[in-house]
Input
Amino acid sequence: MKFVLRVLITAATIFGVAYLSNMWLVSVDEFWPTAVIAALVLGVANAIVKPIVHVLAFPITFLTLGLFGLVVNAAMLYLVAWVVPGFETTGFLQTVLAAIIISAVSGAGAKLVDRD
Output
């Protein structure tokens, strides 16, 4: 049940970022099924691909004092946009900003769901 709630929170965050930014940060066709599938793919990408990219990019992340982690988060959104039809990114800086907002809001929502 917690997994479903976390996916729905992430999907709502993705849709909210797209809607509130007037499709300037990211573009989503509709909540169901596009944002929900994007949230699932983002979860899989964060669980499988992101740790590998973090290990490979450690020297760059170390030299930039961790700021390259924002680029890695944006790369995960680019991966989602490549896989999910109806979900598009609009530019590099917009994608970085969207990644920051999505990770912060969905992380806070996950903390609310996971507390006992």
In short: The chain has one domain: 2-114.
